Amino acid sequence: xxxxxxxxxxxxxxxxxxxxxxxxxxxxxxxxxxxxxxxxxxxxxxxxxxxxxxxxxxxxxxxxxxxxxxxxxxxxxxxxxxxxxxxxxxxxxxxxxxxxxxxxxxxxxxxxxxxxxxxxxxxxxxxxxxxxxxxxxxxxxxxxxxxxxxxxxxxxxxxxxxxxxxxxxxxxxxxxxxxxxxxxxxxxxxxxxxxxxxxxxxxxxxxxxxxxxxxxxxxxxxxxxxxxxxxxxxxxxxxxxxxxxxxxxxxxxxxxxxxxxxxxxxxxxxxxxxxxxxxxxxxxxxxxxxxxxxxxxxxxxxxxxxxxxxxxxxxxxxxxxxxxxxxxxxxxxxxxxxxxxxxxxxxxxxxxxxxxxxxxxxxxxxxxxxxxxxxxxxxxxxxxxxxxxxxxxxxxxxxxxxxxxxxxxxxxxxxx
Length: 416
Fold this sequence. Notes:
By secondary structure, the protein is mainly alpha-helical. The protein has helices spanning 2-9, 17-31, 54-64, 69-80, 119-130, 133-153, 179-182, 190-207, 212-218, 225-244, 248-268, 295-298, 304-315, 349-361, 365-382, 406-415, and strands spanning 33-36, 39-42, 52-53, 92-93, 222-223, 270-271, 274-275, 278-279, 284-285, 385-388, 395-399. The protein has 2 domains: 1-31 and 301-416, no CATH class; 35-288, Glycosyltransferase.
């Protein structure tokens, strides 16, 4: 730990690249800031993603917390303002409709699906900055309703794994983890993939009428590893928040649910020492090697011995994830691997952030530092891009994309 602190301290020197990187990151977040009436939010990319997204705004808030907790809280409060009556928080808000991704698929200017439930984690992290009790009290009803929705509607059989009804709810739209449930071969076009996902969206609001259990039973039911690992970590934070706002019974409830999901993941997802996403009612494992096998590190679900094996056998394996630039979202050994494919091989900064946090949790400080340096190198070489080729470092996809600013949280969280 001391070695990592010493290395990280280099970034605090006035002449360091990191000092300039902090300025450019904050500048990008300010440039991408938007307003609608009393609401303030940040778009991931002005040209490619000119709306508000759920987990993107959570990432923005985590980074903004290091610059201005006030702005971080505004980001999250705008996010929950469009919550559905059943508690769902939509993954998109079209504050001002435009020509990009303009699908009529939700309610009141939103989408009808959600994204990985990192919200309580972000709220608790931001609360640590200034101990704003009113902020917790204002946002807690939204958090409670959202997580109750996930725990009940997305686990109708009470087997303690949370389901998703569309690959987009994972945040990794085209990931090969979803090829089998979508009945697609490992290699197919992005258009074919989008067509299958779009059909699920239509079924959600035309056939299912937003009834998640019905959708999962009849069309698409995946229990995704990252989604469930994230909710385990977030429920621990939510229990802390509930206790802080004097909801002691709910605090106990959320703590218990976190343990039940953790146990269910070990029982129903684990095989060969790693966790696999599952699909359908009988929990068939989707044995496709993606970065998802490292997501349980984030929530400390692996035992120390299991974590060492996962890192040694997979993350440090040059035939799988240990490529020139870390960490590809799909193992090089997979038939679906495509260094330039959308979520099918490139490096994404959000997944690097989760893996970095997980490595630190288990004391892999040197490897965490290597991952951090690789992330910085990608931004140096290609700028704030949506994704990066893990073999060449070439930036791809959206420009002025905000996820690269998560490097700020990687470093600052360790310096605190």
